[in-house]
Amino acid sequence: MPKLYDFGCKAWQKNQRRQQASRESTVVGCTPKGVQVGQPIARGGLFGSPQHKPFMKHFITRIALLVRWALGVILLLAGLGNLATGDIIPSLFIIALSFLVTPLSGKYLFNRLKWRIPAWAKVVLGFVLLVGFGLTTSPSLSIAAKSPTNESPTTVEVVYIAGKTVKLYHNDVDLGEKQTDKNRKALFENIELSEGDNNFRAEVIGEDKNLSRVIVYDTTPPDKPSVNLASEVHDKNLQVGGASEPNATIKIFFNGSEARTVKTDKNGEFSSKFVLSNPDNSFEFEAIDSAGNSSGLTDKISVTYVDTKKIANEEKKAKREADKAQKEQATADKKRAETEAKKAEEEQVKKQQQEDLTNLYNSAKNLYDLSDKGNELVAKSLIGYSSLKISRATLYSYVKDTEAAQDKIWGGLVDLGHSTPESLKEYEKEITGFEGGIVYLQVSVKLRKEAMGELAKYIDTGSLQNMRSYETKLREGTSYAVNGFLKLRAVGEKVGVELE
User: Fold this and answer.
1) pTM for the model
2) Sign of CA pseudo-dihedral 169, 175, 179, 182
3) Which of 89, 401, 412, 440 has the fewest Cβ atoms within 10 Å of its own Cβ atom?
């Protein structure tokens, strides 16, 4: 177990590190007599014989710090606990005192500010906090109720220390006893008041403590405010004033809505400034005395605001707006004429597009109809050949003729694709582009021509492979034809014409 002088020695060493001992002192050792330090000899820099330094004051300082810390923590916890009960002011006094007691106030706060509170100042500040705490927590008896009032029955609160029994008298009539709650209040409810002064006296049972208070019961409404306003004004800044009961509340209603509330002075006069913006304005007034009694609304007072300057400005503005409207009308008429001319031009262009596309579509359809007829002839010839109604040579001749016809039809479609009308240039991609409708028809007819070539080989060789190739190319040609016509009809929908 460490010895007492070891604890004191450590406290002295800590104080030396905090520069509370001489910087020239050097610790030699700790003994029951005290702390041994060596003092350097002047100029020589050598240590002389050790000297004992009493460490009792360092030991006491150490113990005092621990006590201050403990007391500060206890006060802080007490303040926080009291704060939870709702007593804010006393709690703040306790918390401030805990902060002053602990070493935090000097070590961390004021040292960083390069300023230190003297000991006497701490004592004075602590005394002030204690007195403030005492004043805020000292028991005081009070009677809380609105006065004057126009409410009856009413509730009267007697405020004192929590858990005490209090008695209340109304005009010397005993209203009974009640105990104050945790909020230090005892409520006496449903007390019928008499007109005028009502004398209340509260007493604390078991203590020589009592308090009297007069509560005024007033149900007489004040007179309606007296106001003089001109029916017509030319200044938008209007000073509204009048008179009523002294210390009354005046509600001013402006254009049907409550605008503001003012108080009358000791002479019962009131005044308020309004800024008028509309020609027709109305004012109403209501007086409410300190007991809450209302005089009711006064008759509506109409005030007409004639702004001569505004009227002149409005006339100038009306003339400017008329001139502006005339110019805008002329501009609108010109724009409408331009729009109509443009629309007529667009309609003309649209009509031309419809005619050119219809002619183009019909030419392509006529050519493709010829291709269909050739295919039908070959198909019928195949049936006749199968039933031995026509000879092989006749069938071969039909096929070769159809092949030559398909080649001519293909050439006609190519020429048609090279002669796209100027009006349809914006749809050139959909008509004669790489995936345009005319190109799809060209591919379809070319596949039909190739199909005729495969059929001719089949007639020569009897190879089923040629027959299958013939059928495949016919199906592909038909698919391309369908898509080609669909693309041309899509262009027709854009230009507003239905193609069949």
Assistant:
1) 0.39
2) negative
3) 89
